[in-house]
Amino acid sequence: MATCSERDSLGRGPAERSDGWRWGRGLSPSLRPPVARTQLCPRPDTMAVPPCYADLGKSARDTFNKGYGFGLVKLDVKTKSASGVEFTTSGSSNTDTGKVNGSLETKYKWAEYGLTFTEKWNTDNTLGTEITIEDQIAKGLKLTFDTTFSPNTGKKSAKVKTAYKREYVNLGCDVDFDFAGPAIHGSAVFGYEGWLAGYQMTFDSAKSKLSKNNFSVGYKTGDFQLHTTVNDGSEFGGSIYQKVSDSLDTAVNLAWTAGNNTTRFGVAAKYQLDPSAAISVKVNNSSLVGVGYTQTLRPGVKLTLSALVDGKNFNAGGHKVGLGLDLEA
């Protein structure tokens, strides 16, 4: 059957004539009258929901940050039980200080009601509980109740997070409860035809003033992203992300502070050697060179090796190495 792109302005397929004859039964194909062709199927709306404010410029940041673990020996294990409970265990040791940190997280999703229950624990003996409900009260609305408790110190905290996303807009409002007074965090991102504009603020009710006032503007296409930010009117930053090919990602990052003539910048790249191996490289204006290598040993087992070299003090030592192992079953 002819597709919509193959039909002419009268809705006819390539083997049909206006009198209902088929070309195989009537005239030779060489005698077909010229017919103007047009696209009859409507083009799909490709406008997606814009990212939340925290995810603006994320592709560039991931190119700089993922695939490295300087000064750490780290193990991450993810498993899932037959009943659907997800377990995530993480442990790391700092090669400089010898300090060991660990965490355990369990997550259960009740998809029928859009609910997610999460329990957390870490080696600082902090317990956390998180309950999330999504797309139930209204489509695109996500509510999260997050609490933490430290038995050693008796410190407690509670947060209520809301997020609402639709085409062209992504809104967020979090309330961080404190005995001195709640802090309100708000953000909004608007997107149209690849252009993005965002605003983020924090209002400290205890001091009755804005403690954070950030703006961001960017442009995003399939393989190119550009973002600029202004934080509190004094810190300026920008990032460029370019997917050069299916196997090569590149990123550039710039930052400077008002009253300081020094510009901080860095360049990073990630190259996919094959489906199971990738190499990452980054360098900044302080001559710090980072190299990372990621290898999937087998499905569910990933090894990461990384090194940070101080180019200005190459012979003085102080370089860092890292080792990471991710297991998933």
From TrEMBL:
Its main location: mitochondrion. One of its GO terms (molecular function) is voltage-gated monoatomic anion channel activity. InterPro entries: Porin_dom_sf (IPR023614), Porin_Euk (IPR001925), Porin_Euk/Tom40 (IPR027246). It comes from the Eukaryota. Pfam families: Porin_3 (PF01459). It catalyses: K(+)(in) = K(+)(out); chloride(in) = chloride(out); a 1,2-diacyl-sn-glycero-3-phosphocholine(in) = a 1,2-diacyl-sn-glycero-3-phosphocholine(out); a 1,2-diacyl-sn-glycero-3-phospho-(1D-myo-inositol)(in) = a 1,2-diacyl-sn-glycero-3-phospho-(1D-myo-inositol)(out). It is found in: Mitochondrion outer membrane. Residues 1-22 have a biased composition (Basic and acidic residues). Gene3D superfamilies: Porin. CDD domains: Porin3_VDAC. Residues 1-38 are annotated as: Disordered. Keywords: Acetylation, Ion transport, Membrane, Mitochondrion, Mitochondrion outer membrane, NAD, Nucleotide-binding, Porin, Transmembrane, Transmembrane beta strand, Transport. The keyword Acetylation applies. GO terms for cellular component: mitochondrial outer membrane; pore complex. Belongs to the eukaryotic mitochondrial porin family. Catalyzes the scrambling of phospholipids across the outer mitochondrial membrane; the mechanism is unrelated to channel activity and is capable of translocating both anionic and zwitterionic phospholipids. This is Non-selective voltage-gated ion channel VDAC2. It comes from Pleurodeles waltl (Iberian ribbed newt).
